[in-house]
Amino acid sequence: MAAPKIVQIRSGATKQVDGYGFLKEPDFDDKEHADYVKRYLPILVNRRKKWDALLQKQQLPLSKNDLTKRYIRKGIPQVYRRLVWMDVSGAQRLKESHRGRYKALLASSLSKEVVHAIKVDLSRTFTHNVYFGSSPDGLRLPLFNVLGAFASAHPDVGYCQGLNYVAGLLLLVTRCEEDTFWLLEALRENILPSRYYAADLFGVLVDMEVLGYLIGNKVPRVHAHFKKQGIAWNLLVTRWHVCLYADVLPVETVLRIWDCLFYEGSKVLFRVGIALVKLGEEKILGSNDLFAITESMKETCTGPAVLDCHAFIRRSLEIADPLSGKTIASLRGRVGEDVEKFRGLRGRRCGGFTDLYLGNPLDPRS
Amino acid sequence: MSSNQGNLGAFNFKVVLLGEGCVGKTSVVLRYIEDKFNDKHISTIQASFLTKKLNISGKRINLAIWDTAGQERFHALGPIYYRDSHGAILVYDITDEDSFQKVKNWVKELRKMLGTRVCVCIAGNKADLERDRVVSREEASRYAESVGAKHYDTSAKQNHGIEEMFLDLSQRMVEVAEQNEQGQAQLRPSGSTVQVIDDSEKPEKTGCCS
Ligand SMILES: Nc1nc2c(ncn2[C@@H]2O[C@H](COP(=O)(O)OP(=O)(O)OP(=O)(O)O)[C@@H](O)[C@H]2O)c(=O)[nH]1
Ligand SMILES: [Mg+2]
After folding, report:
1. Nearest CA of chain A to the CA of B45: how many Å?
2. Cis omega (within 30 of 0) on the bond before A193?
3. Which ipTM score applies to this complex?
4. Given Cys at both, which of A197, A278, B69, B190 links B74, Cβ 3.0 to 4.6 Å?
């Protein structure tokens, strides 16, 4: 739980940070935050009791059933998060069937380019978090190790910006380099579609399209507004997809999304996207250029309705219900073919593949 | 590219910053717009833009300045970022030879996609790190001249060269726009999408009925 506490930072300055080490942003709203804590704390206490009881009765691995799903949707207590994520994502299984692999990867050599790319991002990751400062016992070195190991394991992917936020937040939760690595592996192997972080970001491109398509169905007025204004959808949502909402939404909200992500799969990412657009609907409709729309989206992403993670998750899960895995899979398939075709036509570098289907000619419905 | 004089006589230009990761694109923009520098900028994953209003000898100019991601794979998202640009600033880091090579690639791509209509500046950033310089200033200037671009030494950290660069770029964009205006008044392409950013056209704040 991100209850504020006072920590002593190396420089000697005392600053207020949340439970994960994030410094208060300048626009931090104390009152709003206090309200939310007051509402959320009893829920957390209650969930903790329930989980204690659950884990007394049942050992990990958890069986996949409606009860587990309900428990996870209502939030995994922070103390159990690492273990439960490792379990339900399949990371634990991967780790056990590849003993010694992480160590071996750390020892393998990396290309100069990859090392450079990772290094420049180390000091640019969560700059407002005390654990990612320059102190030698902080999380920068573990982050370097994890990202380096991941790049070694997948030379075709190397290092993709955005992974620093994903791995960084995983580290803040797990406090374990090796588990963080295996959670990234699980994301790649079991949870995200193929070629997600690939060198051509194929999977990200496809998912941005799919989300755009779903917005067309679920929030048609916004879809029409974007089309009318000629606004490229991916200017708004690239970070949503690449960072899996890390550094986009408030931390606690991201963790609650990831609880579902690790258990239910990547479908939740679309649900959240739809919920965000729905929340921002009126503001978006009242904004007539990209700048104003970007700002109103940003406001929504950090606003009280999203900060209140418990209500927001419930809303996200309800809003796009039902959304079957089959629907997503077939959309991804169709859009994927179109993306390939479009790229083939235009050539990669000059691929006008930009307005996504919002700006045509890639409307999957046509 | 359309001519860009709005009905109030203001020029609306789109300027894009391109260059390798970590050369200082975001820092240059923030220095120019907010006169700030900090070493805590986060890497840019999603392109964004900021606006600036200028007045050059009575001509009103609105710049929409686009900051883009440096990592190559994000270019797979396509040329939305530089499409319809009137100006481009290609940034490299004077202490990093590779980043200068990247500038050359960008020049090729821009010329291919936008032709010669786009005004280009090349910025050798981090000029405050002169001691670690590996890209020769002479070579960079010569190269810039050979491709019809202007070269500037800049330092976002020490606020050096940035104001002049944007000013010069703006003047050149005005010239090009005025030439277009005279030359092809009747050839205005219909599909162009120049962003018009003008406070007079911004909708009133919601809830305000005065
Ligand atoms: N010494 C010095 N450092 C600079 C200067 N400009 C930027 N930097 C530093 O270089 C690093 C990268 O700066 P950014 O502005 O984030 O670079 P960028 O080109 O936007 O990077 P991407 O968003 O990843 O493409 C930061 O640590 C800056 O503080 C400069 O003029 N001098
Ligand atoms: Mg940047």
Report:
1. 6
2. no
3. 0.80
4. B69
